[in-house]
């Protein structure tokens, strides 16, 4: 504990706390449709695929908006962006909680705006780390991103409140939390990163991409995009977001490491947020748990992943991010493959989900230790881009799981696909480590000859 306090005193711990609250309440908003979905489903009259799509839309929206907020952070004060994000993410809650009963289409549209809660990641992390030295970035970014614990509030609060008050009024509980967050940001947030570029261009691009996301959702509703066409939404959204970025920002994507880290984060964080959005539905359908008990399972799993994230960053500080990720990706692949092959009973499934979330949580922290070391000075931009990849992974997980269950009555095909992705990422990390070791040995030999 003394080591932790010593590390926190090396920067502005009040700003770190404000950033944690910003991401925590944003995360609570972001995935709240997941534990509420079993309560919403009877009135919406939709199938498993549509329900998976509904809970995935906020995840997709946040993924795209993270790019825009991350780019805006390069030119505008992080505290101002955060306060704007709090206001925008509160809007759909007010509409859901105070208007008449929304239908499926209205909820999907409001889900786009809920994405502003998850997009807080692209501002909260770099602003928290801006006042801390490089040697503790893994720990500090892990603590800020432990705002993932907002998903725990979702699982504990919303099912019980929905059962007592109705699911619409239950959503209003987040408004006081947002008010506290706004005060903490105004009073404590401190952004020390140097800024460059046009603020107005960043705001214009944010508005354009938000409107484009709403237009894509309308295209789905109008039947222009089929059920399987929904799988193209992330590609269309990301293409548009990258197209409006300045050219020097897009050049960062030429680095091979950038694509590897995006793949890794789409598995670790995508798995965390995607499964947290869908696990209450999965537990209700596959294991016939009550709505409240399914929410409790979701909360316990989310708590595991969120609390382990700082430890993942600290672990990467000690043993290197690539070594930690090689082990964690292998663990995720094995657990997913076991789900696909064994069809475990409830006690075994709960243990396996726990181990899966251990991999997710530690992996999330280890990934961003790597980012802070590799892209010092552009952490806002790269946090947004890599965070987008994580959100896209989180979008595909519930959509694919819903399609798998609707087509076969089982989730095995979904778990098998995600096992293959994790195994591929582990192999790529192993190859990178081997190439890095060979280059190091070759450089040492050259120096010895010289």
Low-confidence stretches: 438-450
Q: What order do the SSEs take from the amino end to the carboxyl end, as H and E?
A: HHHHHHHHHHHHHHHHHHHH
Shape: globular
Largest sheet: none
Give the termini distance in whole angstroms.
48 Å
* Number of β-strand runs: 0
How many structural domains are formed by the residues? 1
Mean pLDDT level: 84
How would the blueprint of this fold be written?
Blueprint: H1 2-8, H2 13-30, H3 33-44, H4 48-73, H5 78-98, H6 104-118, H7 121-129, H8 137-145, H9 150-165, H10 167-170, H11 174-188, H12 199-221, H13 233-243, H14 247-250, H15 256-286, H16 291-319, H17 321-342, H18 346-374, H19 379-408, H20 412-449
Helix pairs in contact: 2-6, 2-7, 2-8, 2-9, 2-11, 3-9, 3-15, 3-16, 4-6, 4-12, 4-13, 4-15, 4-19, 5-6, 5-11, 6-12, 7-8, 7-19, 8-16, 8-18, 9-16, 12-13, 15-16, 15-18, 15-19, 15-20, 16-17, 16-18, 17-18, 17-20, 19-20
Keyphrases for this structure?
mainly alpha; 82% helix; Growth Hormone, Chain: A; 20 helices
Question: Nutshell version of this structure?
Answer:
The protein is mostly helical and about 450 residues long. It has helices spanning about 1-10, 15-30, 35-45, 50-75, 80-100, 105-120, 120-130, 135-145, 150-165, 165-170, 175-190, 200-220, 235-245, 245-250, 255-285, 290-320, 320-340, 345-375, 380-410, 410-450.
